[in-house]
Amino acid sequence: MTTVSASAPGKFVILGEHSVVYGKPALVLAINKRFSIRVSRSKEYKVNGRPATQYNMSPHMMYISNKIGTSPVSIFVDGRVPSGSGLGSSAALSNAYAAAISAIEGLPTDRESIARLAYEAEYSAQGRGSPMDTSASANGGGIALNVPYDEKDFLWHIDNAGNSWDISRIDVPEMSFVIGNTGIRAATAPLVERVRKYRESSRFASDIVDEMGDVALDGLDAMRRNDLEELGALMTYDHKLLSILGVSCNELDRLVEAALPNSYGAKLTGSGGGGCMVALTDRPDRVAKAIRSHGGTPYIVKTGVPGVTVRNCSGRGRRRPRKKKPKQE
Ligand code: MEV
User: Is the Cα dihedral 19, 21, 23, 28 positive or negative?
Assistant: First the structure.
């Protein structure tokens, strides 16, 4: 293959961010905001038509290129997942790039192989973290980590840095979610590090992390019963636990409060410190309006979307000679 395009979705976390880093349960849904990448064989590395540098080629991409040992490619990136917002943009980028490079090199592009490679890239760039975002983006739909599952739902198992995660797919009932972006970009690694230090230095913090794992399990139970009242209440409770851990901020709290009168529940999503919150609601338009009037940008997101996809487009873009129209007499 000489030209390949791949795409992978972003995600939001219903319950379990931060505690999942320590192997606790979590629930995540992929969303209809995607990262797309097209790669073609080239004499030198290029990104969006410019020579590749450490500024326009992310460490995730460099890791994947080095790991696979690919020959130079020209890369076109079209990222529709806002970065630093808790919606898994770097996981989506890693999945899309891993899939495109694997395909062009004739390597496996099944979801598990891509999820593993994307997680390695993410971990090498951040130096910490769980395979939650990368697995959600690779598989699409809804996934859970470290919950009881039926054999048929098992996806893959990942071990790293003394923790291990069983990743399984989950059935997701009809639900509607609105995401609210504070517009404040926050890197994941320092927030994960903040929670790690707090958890290690305080029994109180480590109990909160355990509690968040139990809340995620209760949330799965509520979801399986289609009990949106209960699931929403657990989300709001989880936001309070995350706030105690120090990963919320005034802007996130404001958007959560604004959403609550028209929602079953709301919470920050992702690593926090800025970025996004998410509300479970059956009045998405009202929640979107409330988010906007409190300074946020609302996204009424679709879930149940496909994971990483890859396609060979070597034939595309080549001009076919036009057939001359016969002259009309
Ligand atoms: C970030 O989307 C989620 C965190 O739990 C970090 C991770 O799981 O790697 C904060």
Answer: positive
For the chain, list residues with pLDDT below 50: 316-319, 329
Q: Return the ligand 1 atom nearest residue 195 CA.
A: 10
Are 130 and 170 a contacting pair, CB within 8 Å? Answer: no
| Neighbour order of strands in the sheet with 276-280 | 265-269, 276-280, 177-181, 297-301
pLDDT of residue 314: 77
Which pLDDT value is given to residue 243? Answer: 98
> Can you give the C-alpha Rg of the chain in angstroms?
21
How far is the C-alpha of 319 from the C-alpha of 329, rounded, in Å? 29
Non-local CB neighbours of 78 within 8 Å, separated by 6+ positions: 35, 36, 37
Provide the pLDDT for residue 329.
39
Given ligand 1 and candidates 29, 94, 130, which is best to mutate, with the most ligand atoms within 8 Å of its CB? 130
The Cα-based distances of 56 to 48, 257, 270, 286 in angstroms read 9, 37, 24, 39
Atom 8 in ligand 1: residue holding the nearest Cα? 130
> Tokens for 263?
């929602």
| Distance of CA 309 from the midpoint of ligand 1 (Å) | 23
pLDDT on residue 70: 87
Which residues 6+ apart lie within 8 Å of 197 measured at CB? none
* Predicted local confidence at residue 114, as pLDDT: 98
Give the DSSP letter of residue 151: G
Whether this model's pTM surpasses 0.90: yes
Q: Ligand 1 centre and the CA of 313: distance in Å?
A: 34
Length of the chain counted residue by residue: 329
pLDDT of residue 327: 53
Burial group, residue 96, by CB count within 10 angstroms (0-12, 13-18, 19+): buried
